[in-house]
Amino acid sequence: MLLTTLFTQAIFAQDMAMNNTVMVGGEAMYPQKNIVENAVNSKDHTTLVAAVKAAGLVETLQSKGPFTVFAPTNDAFENLPDGTVETLLKPENKETLTKILTYHVVSGKYDYEAILKAIKAGKGKAALKTVSGGTLTAMMNGSKNISLKDEKGNIANITTYDVNQSNGVIHVLDKVVMPN
After folding, report:
1. Which end of the chain is more exposed for a tag (fewer CB within 10 A), N or C?
2. Per-residue pLDDT tens digits for 69-97
3. What are the Cα distances from residue 177, in Å, to 7, 46, 150?
4. Where does the FAS1 domain start and stop, copy by copy (predicted)?
């Protein structure tokens, strides 16, 4: 039994490496699927998926792109002030929710290396123009980690990089970033 389990795990690991998959929220994220198709499988992103649906952004994030999505985890949403998520999910707050969610999206595919190159070119900082029209500032946090600073001065750390999608790339965040 143990040998069978180890063999199965080895085959799964080899399959993931061959398919360039990354584990997010306990599930494999497949590069041939689009942003929404992968996000709905992540147990760590159920709040984000619910928000994307409430804002009517599913079709957009399933389109050709490419997009770079900075995806906050459920914990990131839970760390917002009490009642924030519930309030944002109400139909009358759709415009505000949409602005916040599109603040987490950049047009184009910016993997770790592309962001790092932009930071180096910007002498330690890179301005990333978001789909909402705002700006996120990318900067190094240590020798290999990248953080994002929002327009309110809050810092979010990228915890998982380069989750490739058919229409872009996702980077997982530990906090929700907020526009002005």
Report:
1. N
2. 999 999 999 999 999 999 999 999 999 99
3. 42, 17, 6
4. 32-177
User: How many other CB atoms sit within 10 Å of the CB of residue 76?
Assistant: 21
Question: The tokens of 98 are what?
Answer: 């949409």
In sequence order, which ranges of the chain are alpha helices (DSSP H)? 2-18, 35-39, 46-55, 58-62, 74-78, 84-88, 94-102, 112-121
Q: Which residue has the tokens 């198709």?
A: 37
Residue 32 covered by a domain: yes
CATH of the domain at 63: 2.30.180.10
Query: Which residue type sits at 78?
Result: E
> CB within 8 A of 82, min separation 6: which ones?
none
- Cα dihedral 90/35/141/26 (nearest 10): 90
- Taking the mean position of all CA atoms in its chain, how far away is CA 176? 10
The reply to whether 91 falls in a domain is yes
Model pLDDT for residues 20-49, shown as the tens digit of each residue: 677 776 678 788 998 998 888 889 999 999
Domain span at residue 49 reads: 2-173
Q: What is the largest CA-CA distance in the chain?
A: 56
3-state secondary structure of 13: helix
| Owner of token pair 């526009």 | 179
CB 174 within 8 A of CB 156: yes
